[in-house]
Amino acid sequence: MLKRFLTGLTLALIMISSPLFAATVPALKGRVNDYAKIIRDSDEREIEEYLAGVEQACGAQIAVLTMPSLDGEDISSFGIKVADKWQLGDKEKDNGAILIVAYAEHDLRIEVGDGLEGSLTDAKCGLILRNVIVPEFRDGNYSDGILKGVKNMGAIASGDESAVSQSVREGESDS
To answer: How far apart are CA 19 and CA 22, in angstroms?
Structure first.
Protein backbone atom coordinates (compact mmCIF):
# COMPACT_ATOMS: atom_id res chain seq x y z
CA MET A 1 0.00 0.00 0.00
CA LEU A 2 2.78 2.42 0.96
CA LYS A 3 4.71 1.48 -2.19
CA ARG A 4 1.71 2.28 -4.40
CA PHE A 5 1.20 5.60 -2.60
CA LEU A 6 4.86 6.57 -3.05
CA THR A 7 4.77 5.60 -6.73
CA GLY A 8 1.66 7.71 -7.26
CA LEU A 9 3.17 10.62 -5.37
CA THR A 10 6.36 10.40 -7.43
CA LEU A 11 4.41 10.38 -10.70
CA ALA A 12 2.32 13.34 -9.57
CA LEU A 13 5.43 15.31 -8.63
CA ILE A 14 7.03 14.56 -12.00
CA MET A 15 3.91 15.68 -13.86
CA ILE A 16 3.60 18.85 -11.80
CA SER A 17 7.28 19.78 -12.03
CA SER A 18 7.78 19.03 -15.74
CA PRO A 19 6.58 22.49 -16.83
CA LEU A 20 9.16 23.95 -14.45
CA PHE A 21 11.90 22.45 -16.59
CA ALA A 22 10.50 23.70 -19.89
CA ALA A 23 12.48 26.31 -21.76
CA THR A 24 11.79 29.93 -20.96
CA VAL A 25 11.10 32.25 -23.87
CA PRO A 26 14.03 34.66 -23.97
CA ALA A 27 13.78 38.38 -24.55
CA LEU A 28 13.51 39.61 -28.11
CA LYS A 29 16.79 41.49 -28.65
CA GLY A 30 16.49 42.18 -32.36
CA ARG A 31 15.96 40.34 -35.62
CA VAL A 32 18.66 37.81 -34.66
CA ASN A 33 18.55 36.25 -31.20
CA ASP A 34 21.43 33.80 -31.12
CA TYR A 35 21.29 32.35 -27.62
CA ALA A 36 23.00 29.12 -28.82
CA LYS A 37 25.94 31.15 -30.22
CA ILE A 38 25.98 29.33 -33.57
CA ILE A 39 25.76 32.30 -35.96
CA ARG A 40 28.95 34.01 -37.10
CA ASP A 41 29.08 37.74 -36.34
CA SER A 42 29.35 38.62 -40.04
CA ASP A 43 26.30 36.48 -40.86
CA GLU A 44 24.37 37.99 -37.96
CA ARG A 45 24.97 41.48 -39.36
CA GLU A 46 23.99 40.31 -42.86
CA ILE A 47 20.78 38.71 -41.57
CA GLU A 48 19.90 41.82 -39.55
CA GLU A 49 20.36 44.07 -42.59
CA TYR A 50 18.54 41.70 -44.93
CA LEU A 51 15.53 41.35 -42.63
CA ALA A 52 15.37 45.12 -42.11
CA GLY A 53 15.15 45.42 -45.90
CA VAL A 54 12.40 42.81 -46.08
CA GLU A 55 10.44 44.65 -43.41
CA GLN A 56 10.85 47.94 -45.23
CA ALA A 57 9.87 46.41 -48.59
CA CYS A 58 6.77 44.45 -47.58
CA GLY A 59 6.14 45.04 -43.88
CA ALA A 60 6.78 41.44 -42.82
CA GLN A 61 8.80 41.02 -39.64
CA ILE A 62 11.00 37.94 -39.53
CA ALA A 63 13.22 36.97 -36.62
CA VAL A 64 15.67 34.19 -35.78
CA LEU A 65 15.91 32.45 -32.42
CA THR A 66 18.58 29.88 -31.60
CA MET A 67 18.36 28.10 -28.26
CA PRO A 68 21.07 25.93 -26.71
CA SER A 69 18.32 23.57 -25.50
CA LEU A 70 14.57 23.45 -25.00
CA ASP A 71 15.02 21.45 -21.80
CA GLY A 72 12.72 18.68 -22.96
CA GLU A 73 9.96 20.90 -24.32
CA ASP A 74 8.47 20.15 -27.72
CA ILE A 75 9.58 22.68 -30.36
CA SER A 76 6.00 23.15 -31.59
CA SER A 77 4.66 24.26 -28.23
CA PHE A 78 7.80 26.32 -27.60
CA GLY A 79 7.35 28.02 -31.00
CA ILE A 80 3.80 29.01 -30.13
CA LYS A 81 4.98 30.46 -26.81
CA VAL A 82 7.66 32.48 -28.62
CA ALA A 83 5.19 33.77 -31.20
CA ASP A 84 2.72 34.74 -28.46
CA LYS A 85 5.36 36.58 -26.43
CA TRP A 86 7.26 38.29 -29.26
CA GLN A 87 4.19 39.32 -31.31
CA LEU A 88 6.11 39.97 -34.53
CA GLY A 89 4.53 41.77 -37.45
CA ASP A 90 1.80 44.33 -37.70
CA LYS A 91 -0.87 43.70 -35.06
CA GLU A 92 -3.69 43.93 -37.62
CA LYS A 93 -1.94 41.92 -40.34
CA ASP A 94 -0.21 39.30 -38.10
CA ASN A 95 2.61 39.18 -40.67
CA GLY A 96 5.48 37.92 -38.58
CA ALA A 97 7.58 34.76 -38.82
CA ILE A 98 10.24 33.14 -36.64
CA LEU A 99 12.94 30.63 -37.52
CA ILE A 100 13.64 28.64 -34.34
CA VAL A 101 16.67 26.39 -33.92
CA ALA A 102 17.01 24.10 -30.89
CA TYR A 103 20.68 23.16 -30.97
CA ALA A 104 20.85 20.31 -28.43
CA GLU A 105 17.70 18.68 -29.80
CA HIS A 106 18.80 19.05 -33.45
CA ASP A 107 15.36 20.46 -34.18
CA LEU A 108 14.10 23.48 -36.04
CA ARG A 109 10.82 25.09 -36.92
CA ILE A 110 9.35 28.06 -38.75
CA GLU A 111 6.40 29.73 -37.03
CA VAL A 112 4.33 31.92 -39.35
CA GLY A 113 1.64 34.44 -38.48
CA ASP A 114 -1.74 34.25 -40.21
CA GLY A 115 -0.91 37.25 -42.41
CA LEU A 116 2.01 35.43 -44.07
CA GLU A 117 0.44 32.00 -44.40
CA GLY A 118 -0.71 32.78 -47.93
CA SER A 119 2.86 33.18 -49.15
CA LEU A 120 5.01 31.42 -46.55
CA THR A 121 2.93 28.25 -46.50
CA ASP A 122 3.59 25.12 -44.47
CA ALA A 123 4.77 23.41 -47.67
CA LYS A 124 7.24 26.20 -48.49
CA CYS A 125 8.51 26.29 -44.91
CA GLY A 126 9.03 22.53 -45.05
CA LEU A 127 11.01 22.88 -48.27
CA ILE A 128 13.17 25.62 -46.76
CA LEU A 129 13.87 23.45 -43.74
CA ARG A 130 14.55 20.22 -45.66
CA ASN A 131 16.22 21.53 -48.81
CA VAL A 132 18.08 24.61 -47.60
CA ILE A 133 18.79 24.56 -43.87
CA VAL A 134 19.14 20.88 -42.94
CA PRO A 135 21.78 20.07 -45.60
CA GLU A 136 23.95 22.90 -44.24
CA PHE A 137 23.37 21.77 -40.64
CA ARG A 138 24.40 18.20 -41.55
CA ASP A 139 27.74 19.59 -42.69
CA GLY A 140 28.10 21.60 -39.45
CA ASN A 141 27.41 24.89 -41.25
CA TYR A 142 24.79 26.26 -38.86
CA SER A 143 25.43 29.90 -39.64
CA ASP A 144 25.23 29.32 -43.41
CA GLY A 145 22.06 27.28 -43.06
CA ILE A 146 20.34 29.96 -41.02
CA LEU A 147 21.45 32.73 -43.40
CA LYS A 148 20.23 30.83 -46.48
CA GLY A 149 16.98 29.82 -44.78
CA VAL A 150 16.21 33.38 -43.72
CA LYS A 151 16.92 34.68 -47.21
CA ASN A 152 14.45 32.17 -48.64
CA MET A 153 11.83 33.12 -46.05
CA GLY A 154 12.31 36.81 -46.83
CA ALA A 155 12.24 36.28 -50.58
CA ILE A 156 8.99 34.35 -50.38
CA ALA A 157 7.40 36.83 -47.94
CA SER A 158 8.31 39.78 -50.16
CA GLY A 159 7.33 38.03 -53.41
CA ASP A 160 10.87 37.97 -54.85
CA GLU A 161 10.74 34.53 -56.48
CA SER A 162 14.08 35.10 -58.22
CA ALA A 163 15.82 35.02 -54.82
CA VAL A 164 14.20 31.73 -53.73
CA SER A 165 16.54 28.72 -53.88
CA GLN A 166 16.07 26.45 -56.84
CA SER A 167 15.60 23.46 -54.52
CA VAL A 168 12.64 25.22 -52.91
CA ARG A 169 11.12 26.28 -56.25
CA GLU A 170 11.56 22.81 -57.75
CA GLY A 171 10.22 21.16 -54.62
CA GLU A 172 7.04 23.19 -54.98
CA SER A 173 6.35 21.86 -58.46
CA ASP A 174 6.92 18.27 -57.26
CA SER A 175 4.33 18.53 -54.49
So the answer is: 5
